[in-house]
Specification:
By secondary structure, the chain is of the alpha/beta class. The protein has 15 helices and 16 strands. It has a 9-stranded mixed beta sheet with strand order 9-10-8-7-6-5-4-1-11, with helices on both faces. Strands 12-13-14 form a 3-stranded antiparallel beta sheet, with no helix packed on it. Helix 1 runs parallel beside helix 2 and helix 6 runs parallel beside helix 8. The longest helix is centred in the middle third of the chain and has 17 residues. It is globular and about 55 Å long.
Length: 395
């Protein structure tokens, strides 16, 4: 056995956290114009009039119940996800952000991201969003091609997608992400690359480029479309990554590519096992405590229940056990192409690094984890077979 593969035996875990991780806030807005056939998120078709005021009141009351667990810790990022948060007016989001800041301090350089769909773009609304302090957009384009947009059930056209990016820039957003899918029904290599070229031409700072997958409890799961063959999917992935690199986008996560310095800080916090409060219908959270407890929470899923004063916001919570922490940490950290500093494991879990020793050595021998004592990082093969790699850390 190579000496670099030998690690000392793990001592008993202490699980005391001497330094708490950065804190973020995820806000879920569950309504969208129409449910897409591939979507397995907690989203619901909106009625003509959204209950904005009631929902903002509920969000702030929900946040109030989580405050005791984060007292004194500032927020480094906020992410409005959905659904389609851009359905909400600037007035509603402004009242919400003001209420959040009254309760939790913001860091000076806080990143505040709003998900938006091109079919909901209005120039005046986005100018107003920017004035609220929202400083990053994530625009869900998925494709620019009419037949592909129709197949995906999207409400916008390719031209609207192009205009949305221009509107974002005119509104003052110099930092925005475009969401793009590949492996779409009957998609060819050239069609996938053409989508990428159009997205790159819009000069975003970040691209989320990911393969369409068929998820349970979706229309596509029950009525599967004809997807490209595996060899075409592989060609798309290789050619697309090369095209993105050629235009200055570095891959830093399985499906995330960014200009230098423009990686999504909110998502980096997830992947480095940071903390986040989750508020809103179906929102999930993860909070660390100085005594070593790490607790995952989830909120009431259905909007009508979430807005019902007779029901609790929190649907459940789970305190992670010491046995679960290695998998939980690495499930996130190993998505990053450069991995993380090995010492971050001890900082974020309260467990000694040696806890990973046996599984780490085995994964290295199998060529799935790099032999790098100061870092935890998957090999190229490990990135491709991430689930296989993570199996070594399951108890």
């Amino acid at each position: 056995m190579n000496d670099s593969l030998i690690y000392p035996a793990a001592p008993p875990p202490s699980q005391v956290l001497t330094q708490l991780p950065p804190l973020a806030l995820y806000i879920h807005v569950p309504w969208c114009v129409r449910k897409c056939p591939y979507c397995d998120f907690n989203s619901h078709a909106a009625s003509p009039v959204l209950p904005e005021e009631e929902y903002v009141d509920a969000l702030l009351a929900d946040l109030d119940q989580d405050l005791a667990a984060v007292y004194g810790r500032p927020l480094s990022s906020i992410f409005f996800g959905g659904g389609t948060p851009s359905l909400f007016s600037a007035a509603a989001l402004g009242r919400l952000l003001a209420g959040v800041e009254q309760r939790i301090p913001f860091t000076a350089d806080i990143e505040i991201t709003l998900e938006a769909n091109p079919g909901t773009f209005e120039q005046d609304k986005f100018v107003a969003y920017r004035k609220l302090g929202i400083n990053r957009l994530s625009i869900g384009i998925q494709s620019f091609q009419p037949n592909k947009l129709e197949a995906l059930g999207r409400i916008h056209t390719g031209d609207e997608a192009l205009r949305a990016a221009e509107m974002a820039r005119r509104a003052g957003f110099d930092n925005f992400n475009l969401d793009l899918m590949h492996g779409l029904p009957d998609q060819s290599l050239e069609e996938a690359l053409d989508d990428l070229r159009q997205a790159i031409a819009l000069a975003p700072t970040h691209l989320s480029w990911y393969q369409l997958t068929l998820e349970p409890n979706t229309v596509f799961w029950n009525q599967p479309p004809e997807l490209p063959e595996d060899d075409i999917l592989w060609d798309i992935q290789e050619a697309g990554q090369a095209l993105l690199a050629e235009h200055g986008f570095s891959q830093y996560e399985v499906s995330a590519y960014a200009r230098p310095g423009k990686a999504a800080r909110h998502n980096l916090n997830y992947w480095s096992f940071g903390d986040f409060i989750g508020i809103g219908a179906g929102a999930h959270g993860k909070l660390s405590h100085p005594d070593g407890r790490i607790v995952r929470t989830w909120k009431t899923r259905l909007p009508k229940d979430y807005l019902n004063p007779g029901k609790q916001f929190k649907a459940g919570e789970k305190t992670l056990t010491a046995d679960e922490l290695p998998f939980e940490f690495l499930m996130n950290a190993l998505r990053l192409t450069q991995g993380v500093d090995a010492e971050l494991f001890a900082q974020r879990t309260g467990l000694p690094l040696q806890t990973l020793a046996a599984a780490r050595a085995e994964a290295e021998q199998k060529g799935l984890l790099q032999v790098e004592p100061t870092r935890l990082v998957a090999t190229a093969r490990g990135q491709l077979f991430l689930n296989d790699l993570l199996q070594y850390f399951l108890v």
